[in-house]
Design goal:
The protein is mainly α and about 450 residues long. It has helices at about 15-20, 25, 30-45, 55-70, 85-95, 110-145, 165-190, 210-215, 225-230, 235-260, 285-310, 325-350, 355-360, 365-375, 380-400, 405-415, 420-425, 425-430, 440-455; strands at about 150-155, 160-165, 190-195, 220, 265-270, 350. It contains 19 helices and six strands. The strands form three sheets. Strands 1-2 form a two-stranded antiparallel ribbon. It has a two-stranded parallel ribbon with strand order 3-4. The chain has a two-stranded antiparallel sheet with strand order 5-6. Helix 3 (about 30-45) runs antiparallel to helix 4, helix 3 crosses helix 6 (about 110-145) and helix 14 packs across helix 15 (about 380-400). It is elongated, with a radius of gyration of 31 Å. The chain binds arginine. Arginine (ARG) binds near residues 27, 83, 110, 317 and 321. Arginine binds next to helix 6. Its EC number is 4.3.2.1.
Length: about 450
């Protein structure tokens, strides 16, 4: 098939080359944005008297029909037309003949593809923001239902101090908030229009970039045509955001996987989000959480891929940049898919409050509180730490918890200890006493929740 750019060529492209450089198999996803950009461009060409209004109208009507045809599955894209841009342009020419050949005036595929991908990414950012808000709302709800669900908090994956489930869930909510803020930052930086950059050096035609900019809802037109066709920061940035967002989900998944093990037994993932084993009849595996954890590596790969593609490229456009699309689509779609499954998974899981409380009571998670108790009785923290360490050592040797030690035994270690110690080291008191800003006491967690709810408004 004759190429739209075939004038200076004598021979046809080899079949091998056609397959090798064609991107239609993946960039067909951009058809809507390509048509949207072309419509704005055609309107602008007429408004600036670069083409006749009548021609522009005919082009726009045909483009709309092409979009309908694509949506109704009536279009068979062709590899020999390389990419979505040339496929649509050739469909247009098939439909309306010579008039269709006027659309590409004052435009290059380089600014066209930069525009299409930017429009796609902008919509994806909006969609991701909604998904993240749903996720954040689900986290808040889970926290609200578990304000007094006591569990052990961990450092080094060793039981450390008692907290509430709400407190730890709200930690994940804070991460989700920042994930949303990073998307807002993306929008502030990158809602800029590359259309009108031409191949790299603008155009000799009297185009009106402010007009297309406003039509397409951009904050501004890019200020440098070379940058306009060369910049892929906006892809790198969204994939960096996706990587961070996935890392956050993955850490939570790691906890869910641990918590659903028989060793922890803190939660049970609902049947809808777990799977069985083909061999072991007793098994119930937390596959959804494992897959989110697994897909995190894949999204990092998408980010590394585009960073590596871009690092050695001279200005301006280079065909290497065609490699930007598959990783962009993959990173965004993976993040979206993971968010879509995480929300119902945590909403439906069963919380085993009793087991969490029992675990909080074990492992001497209230040892810090015992030391704090001694400090409040007038002992310095370092001495209190030492005495408490000796008490813990003693309890370990007797295989009992701190609250099982009788008052006479306590007083062997320090005369300052009185019977009020038992209330002070009760795990529930340990949580409610931690009233410092951001701490696990119910009023602090409620404050955290209030704060995030107003962020969501
Ligand atoms: N399919 C190409 C891409 O995705 C479109 C731009 C082609 N430009 C060019 N000068 N060959 O990057």
């Amino acid at each position: 098939m004759k190429k739209l750019w075939g004038g200076r060529f004598e021979k046809d492209t080899s079949k091998l080359m056609e397959d090798f450089h064609s991107s239609i198999s993946f960039d067909k996803k951009l058809y809507h944005y390509d048509i949207m950009g072309s419509i704005a461009h055609a309107e602008m060409l007429a408004k600036c008297n670069i083409i006749d209004l009548k021609d522009s109208e005919e082009i726009i009507e045909a483009l709309r029909e092409i979009e309908d045809d694509i949506e109704n599955g009536q279009v068979e894209f062709s590899v020999s037309q390389e990419d979505i841009h040339m496929n649509i342009e050739s469909l247009l020419i098939d439909k309306i003949g010579d008039t269709g050949k006027k659309l590409h005036t004052a435009r290059s595929r380089n600014d066209q593809v930069a525009l299409d991908v930017r429009l796609y990414t902008r919509d994806a950012v909006l969609e991701l923001k909604e998904l993240l808000k749903d996720w954040l709302k689900a986290l808040i709800k889970l926290a609200e239902n578990n304000l007094d669900t006591i569990m052990p908090g961990y450092t080094h994956l060793q039981r450390a101090q008692p907290i509430s489930l709400a407190h730890t869930v709200m930690a994940h909510a804070e991460m989700a908030k920042r994930d949303i803020q990073r998307l807002d930052a993306w929008m502030n930086i990158y809602n800029v229009m590359p259309l009108g950059s031409g191949a790299l050096a603008g155009t000799t035609f009297p185009i009106d970039r402010n007009y297309t900019c406003q039509k397409l809802g951009f904050d501004s037109a890019c200020m440098n045509s070379i940058d306009g066709v060369s910049d892929r920061d906006y892809i790198i940035d969204i994939l960096a955001n996706a990587s961070i967002g996935m890392m956050h989900l993955s850490r939570f998944c790691e906890e869910l996987i641990l918590w659903s093990s028989q060793e922890f037994d803190f939660i049970e993932i609902d049947d809808e989000f777990a799977t069985g084993s083909s061999m072991m009849p007793q098994k119930k595996n937390p596959d959804a959480a494992e897959l989110v954890r697994g897909k995190t590596g894949r999204v990092y790969g998408d980010l590394m891929s585009i960073l590596t593609t871009m690092k050695g490229l001279p200005l301006s456009y280079n065909k290497d940049m065609q490699e930007d699309k598959e990783v962009l689509f993959d990173g965004i779609e993976t993040w979206e898919k993971c968010l879509r499954i995480m929300t119902p998974m945590i909403t439906s899981m069963k919380i085993k409050k009793y087991n969490m409380l029992e675990a909080a009571k074990g492992g001497y998670t209230n040892a810090t509180d015992l030391a704090d108790y001694l400090v409040k009785k007038g002992i310095s923290f370092r001495d209190a730490h030492k005495i408490t360490g000796e008490i813990v050592f003693y309890c370990i040797s007797k295989n009992i918890s701190l609250d099982q030690l009788n008052i006479f035994e306590y007083q062997e270690f320090s005369q300052k200890i009185e019977v009020d110690v038992y209330d002070f080291i009760d795990v529930k008191t340990c949580v409610s006493n931690r009233k410092s800003i951001g701490g696990p006491a119910i009023e602090q967690v409620k404050n955290n929740i209030r704060n995030l709810k107003s962020f969501l408004k």
